[in-house]
C-alpha cells in the first residue's frame, strides 16, 4: 500500500497578524509599543508596554496584564492590551517566569507566590513612577494569570491597586458555594426561549 505523503507545511508567520513589520502594525492599531528586560531577584523577565499613539492624549489609568499558562505577551494576548490602549489606558505586561522570553524552566510554574512576586516587582516599579502614581491602576489576569493577579493583590501594599479585572480566572469554587446541577440546568433552559435561530447559508459571503 502506497504511503500518503503530505506536502510540507509553510513556516508560521513571524507575528500573529502576519508578515507586517511590528512598527508598521502597531501604528496601524494607533498604539506605541516598547519592549525591555527587567531584572528581578528571581531572574530577568521580558516586558512590553502599549500606549496610545497620540502622545498628547491624556492617560485614563494603567492596566497591568497577566497572561495564562504557556502563553506570553507577544502573541494573540496582546490584542487585549492594544484594545485597552485604544481606550486611553497605558498598558504594561510581562512574560511570567518560564514563559515567553523571560528566564526560567519552560512552562514550569512551581511556586505561584514566586511567579507573582517576580512580575509584581516590575509592575510596582511602573505603578509608583511619577508618571502613574496618581492615576487609577488595575491588575488584569487571564486564566492562570487571574490567580497570579489575585496573589499580586494580596502581596501589595494597601491602596496600590484601584481594582482587579479577570478573564476566565483559575479560581476554585468552594464545594459549598457550587450551585446544584439541577438549578444550573434550569437556568440554562430558561435562556432557550430567547435564542434566535438563523439560516447560516444566507449569511455566508462568497
From TrEMBL:
Entry keywords, A to Z: Acyltransferase, Transferase
Listed InterPro entries: AB_hydrolase_fold (IPR029058), Hydrolase_4 (IPR022742), MAG_DAG_Lipase (IPR051044)
GO cellular component: membrane
Molecular functions per Gene Ontology: 2-acylglycerol O-acyltransferase activity; lipase activity
Enzyme Commission code: 2.3.1.22
One Pfam entry name: Hydrolase_4
Top EC class for this record: transferase
SUPFAM superfamilies: alpha/beta-Hydrolases
Gene3D superfamilies referenced in this protein's UniProt entry, alphabetically: alpha/beta hydrolase
Ranges of residues in domain Serine aminopeptidase S33: 58-186
Name of the protein: 2-acylglycerol O-acyltransferase
Amino acid at each position: 500500500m502506497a504511503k500518503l505523503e503530505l506536502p510540507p507545511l509553510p513556516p508560521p508567520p513571524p507575528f500573529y497578524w502576519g508578515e507586517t513589520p511590528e512598527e508598521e502594525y502597531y501604528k496601524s492599531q494607533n498604539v506605541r509599543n516598547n519592549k525591555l528586560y527587567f531584572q528581578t531577584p528571581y531572574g530577568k523577565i521580558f516586558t512590553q508596554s502599549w500606549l496610545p499613539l497620540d502622545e498628547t492624549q491624556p492617560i485614563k489609568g494603567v492596566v497591568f496584564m497577566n497572561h495564562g499558562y504557556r502563553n506570553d505577551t507577544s502573541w494573540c494576548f496582546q490584542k487585549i492590551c492594544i484594545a485597552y490602549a485604544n481606550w486611553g489606558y497605558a498598558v504594561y505586561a510581562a512574560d511570567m517566569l518560564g514563559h515567553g522570553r523571560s528566564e526560567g524552566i519552560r512552562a514550569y510554574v512551581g511556586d505561584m507566590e514566586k511567579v507573582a512576586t517576580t512580575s509584581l516587582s516590575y509592575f510596582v516599579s511602573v505603578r509608583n513612577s511619577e508618571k502613574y502614581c496618581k492615576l487609577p491602576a488595575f491588575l488584569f489576569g487571564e486564566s492562570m494569570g487571574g490567580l497570579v493577579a489575585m496573589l499580586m493583590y494580596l502581596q501589595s501594599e494597601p491602596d496600590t491597586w484601584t481594582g482587579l479585572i479577570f478573564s476566565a480566572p483559575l479560581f476554585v469554587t468552594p464545594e459549598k458555594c457550587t450551585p446544584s446541577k439541577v438549578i444550573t440546568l434550569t437556568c440554562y433552559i430558561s435562556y432557550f426561549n430567547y435564542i434566535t435561530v438563523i439560516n447560516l447559508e444566507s449569511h455566508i459571503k462568497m
